[in-house]
Amino acid sequence: MHLRPIHFADAPFAYPDGHVARLAGGMQWFAAYEVIDGDTRRIVPVADVAQLGPRAATLHARVCAPRAPWVLGGRTLRFDQPQVAAILNVTPDSFSDGGAHVDDPAGAAAAGMAMAANGAAVIDVGGESTRPGAAPVWEEDEARRVAPAVERLARGGALVSVDTRKAAVMEAALAAGAGIVNDVSALLWDDRALELVARAGVPVILMHSPDPRAGGHGRPRYGNVVTEVFDWLEARVEAVVAAGVDRARIMVDPGIGFGKSLADNLALLGGLALFHGLGCPIMLGASRKRMIGALDNEAPVAERLGGSVALAVAGAQAGVQLLRVHDVRETVQALRVWRGLRDHALSAVS
After folding, report:
1. 289 a catalytic residue
2. One of 165, 236, 260, 289 is an active-site residue; which one?
3. Is 247 marked active-site?
4. What is the pLDDT of residues 278-331, one digit of tens each?
5. How many CB atoms lie within 10 A of CB 120?
6. Separation CA 202–CA 25 (nearest Å)
7. N or C: which end of the chain has fewer CB within 10 A?
8. Are residues 145 and 263 in the same domain?
9. Both 47 and 77 in a single domain?
10. Are residues 59 and 74 in the same domain?
């Protein structure tokens, strides 16, 4: 069984007690679930969810539970409203901005601090491209790219995550001051990664891909991509918790564009609210991705700003807590307007 929150409510106080629920302690309320049970789907009011049995009760509790903030030294990352993680590549070949900051840690750090000044809550630093067909990078080379930029950013007061699947790079970045590990392989690519993260006690972002050890871009045929990605992430979260990582320190990412067709990506975006049933904060990384070009006459990467902002707002509407983006200032502005609309709706008198 899976539960997807639906029938979102602008004014929760207009409903009788118990007829709406708050989504993950955030700014959204909803009045019903789409209940997906095998091949059957039905709509059940929130007030009746207790009648659906223990699995539904567990999912409902996870959907509604506030997400505990991540306190990382002197910085706190809150999850009661959507935040932005800025993408900072220090690679020569990333699909969007590869080469802009390679071999230039001072320039990379300056760019990252500018993104923080524009409203990014996290700077996500990566030293290896994960685009389809990208050449693998030796871990020592990747660490040499990443660690100097991380050290400068952390020294400047930024909250830094490291985007890597390699334990040696995680170790170097954490030693340089990174506070979060963001792994597109969900700690499956490197056999040392899970133990390292558990021992370090740092938060981790687990992304779905169908073949994490092979690079994440296989193309399986999904029966229901939303529930299958949910099930994969649910199993992965449980495995990571069993290895000693606090569930409250895990974030999940459905992996838009990794081993998914356009139809798969659209289905995942439409079903994002279902992933709150994992009981973890959600990250959405759809910025400038190929699906935007596919929907807009093959618009090149540099001309995907509008689509990127639209997807970020769609994520906010679904209660996503962290939006991983290239275009920080524009996305932050869109989220501030969205937040203003939500504040007005929630403070309006019925």
Report:
1. yes
2. 289
3. no
4. 999 999 999 999 999 999 999 999 999 999 999 999 999 999 999 999 999 999
5. 27
6. 22
7. C
8. yes
9. no
10. no
